[in-house]
Amino acid sequence: MKTLAGKTAIVTGASRGIGRAIALHLAGEGASVVLTARDTGLLDAAVEAISAAGGSAIRIAADLRETATAAFVEQAAADAYGAVDILVNNAGATIRGEFEELTDHDWQDGFALKFFGAVRLTRAVWPHLRARGGSLVNIAGSGGRTPGAQFAIGGSVNAALLSFTKSLAETGLRDGVQVNCVNPGPVRTARLETRLARIAAEKAVSREQALEMFLTGEKISRVAEPEEIAALVGFIVGPCGRSLHGSLIDMDGGATKTI
To answer: Is 7 within 8 Å of 216 (Cβ atoms)?
Structure first.
């Protein structure tokens, strides 16, 4: 039985990594999926993968940092499928670096996509979610709870998303909208592979040794697969996850040490 049959989901940052995995998972559970990101080619490949598996999807190549994009995405989703039941705000990557080296542009760009892009799209889609008793999932990150010296921007942006989630959860009680947030730790994506390659080169070790050094340095049990994050999102928005509300769920291999 497909748990999301008859539902429509928007997934941002859906061209690769976690976002792509979420889009494919929700489609596999029967949802019609609107994938949005900036890379047209990668979006087309993801839509083709969904179609080949018997699912329904469209793609919108757009930049959520631009103020008009949220309304455009909402209208395209409504035109294609009539309404929206699920919104997954996943888009956004932030630059790492020493605080004194981070510029105003770095900070502004970090918030522009991951935070303000999520705020604008949520505002545009909220009437649909309210009308259909829908679900919102923000994808933040473990750095929002435990930021490090290299993650000043990312930690701040993720912390803002956590606060945004808690605020909207109260609004969701009034409007009948389920609101939650997932905090992934390190996930096996192209970005992580680049970090591992850098460690391997700097330490003159193998990729496997670099991974072990990374796990030790981060004090985590393992690196997650994108599909694991996707499965958690699918559970949250499915019929068995409806009691989750206002939850900030850490899926980070133990990276978060605080209560």
So the answer is: no
pTM across the whole model: 0.96
Is 2 inside any structural domain? no
Which of the 8 DSSP states describes residue 113? I
Residue for token pair 């930690």:
155
Q: What is the pLDDT of residues 33-92, one digit of tens each?
A: 999 999 999 999 999 999 999 999 999 999 999 999 999 999 999 999 999 999 999 999
Q: How far apart are CA 7 and CA 212, in angstroms?
A: 41
49 and 89 together in one domain: yes
249 assigned to some structural domain: no
Candidates 40, 19, 29, 142; CA nearest to 87 is 19
Q: Which two tokens stand for residue 101?
A: 């080296």
In a domain, residue 136? The reply is yes
Residue 161: give the domain boundaries: 8-187+225-243
Q: Is residue 250 part of a domain?
A: no
As a whole number of angstroms, the distance between CA 119 and CA 179 comes to 13
What pLDDT is stored for residue 258 in this prediction?
Answer: 87
Q: Are residues 23 and 142 in the same domain?
A: yes
- Rounded CA-CA distance 75/80 in Å is 9
